[in-house]
Design goal:
It is found in: Cytoplasm. The protein has 348 residues and is of the alpha+beta class. Helix content is 21%, strand content 31%.
Amino acid sequence: YPSEFLVQKITEDNQIPVHLQVSVSLQYVAGLKGSALVEFFHGNIAEVENEELRHLMWSSVLFYKTPNVEVMACVLLSTKAIYFLLDDSFVHADEHQSDFWSKENSDCENSSFHLSCCFVLKLNDLQSVNVGLFDQYFRITGHSADHIVTCLTRDSYNTHTFIQQLMAVLSLLARTPSPEPVDKDFYSEFGSKNTGKMENYELIHSSRVKFIYPNEEEIGDLAFLVAEKMDGLTHLPSLNILLYVLAFQVNHVEGSAPNTSSLHPKTLILTSSDLFLFDEDYISYPLPEFAKEPPKRDKYQLADGRRIRDLDRVLMGYQTYPQALTFVFDDVQDQDLMHNLTLDHFGE
C-alpha cells in the first residue's frame, strides 16, 4: 500500500508529452489516476506480488537491437524491475526484430482490442547506467544486447529524478558483496597499459551497478569534431560549445492538415559562431563489453550547419512547453560579405 504522497506524485507524472503521438492503449494508461493506476500496475504489469511501484515516467526509448526506431514508452520503476510499456505498433515497425519480440498475440487484429507490449529489465540483471551529456538521456545496460535501452528524456530534471529513484531502489537489493581486492604487485601496478585517455567518471553503487557520467574530455572531443565540420574555421584557438540539447526538427508534411508535422530527432549544438544539427547515435556508445565490432555509423553525423552571422531572424511560437523556434537564415551562403567589404575599402 503506497503512501498518499507517492500515489499523488505518480499521478502527477502520468502525463504524455503533448508533442508526441501514442496509441489508444497508452492513452488509456495515461488516463489512470491515483489508486486505479497502482491497481493497474499490480493487476497487469507486476511480476511479483510483493513488489512496490516507486516511480513513473513517460519517455522516448531506443533499443540496442533497433537503433533507428524511437518509440514512446511509459517507464515504470518498481522494487524488482524496470518496465517499459510500449505501443504494439512498435513490434511491427522493424522487420529485423522478429527474434527480439515474441509474436504470440499477433493474431489479435480486432480493432476494439488494444495491445501493449511490456519489456522487462530486472534490477538483478542491471549492470551499468550511462548518463548522457548534460543529462539529456541515459542508457541502461543489462547482460546482453537484448537488455540495452536508452531513455531519451530530453530533460535533465526527469533524468536526475529517475536516477535518484533507481539508486534508492537498488539500495534495497541484497546482493553478495564483491570479493576483497587482491594486493597488486609493483609490475602489475605500473605495467598496465595506459591509453592516455581519461576514463569517464564512474560511481559504483553498493549494489555493484555502475553509474557512468561523461567527463570534460567528451566535450573536448565533441568540440574537436565540430571544428572539423567548420569550413576554414579550424584555426580558431578556442571553440566553445555554448549549448547541447536534444530536440526535434519539424518537417511540415505537404498536402496535409495545417497542424500535421513530422518530428525528426536531432542534436542541436550551438557554438560562438555556428549552429549545428547532428544525427547522434544515443544507444551504441560507449561500446558494450560484448560488442564484437564497432557500430555501423559514427556517434555524430552532421545533418546541417549554419553560421550565426547568416542568421536573419528567430521566430518564437507562443504555445506552452515545448517551445517551437524557427531560424531564418539569409539565402546568400558561403559568401563572407564582411571579408569582401574589408578588401574593397582597405586593399591588402
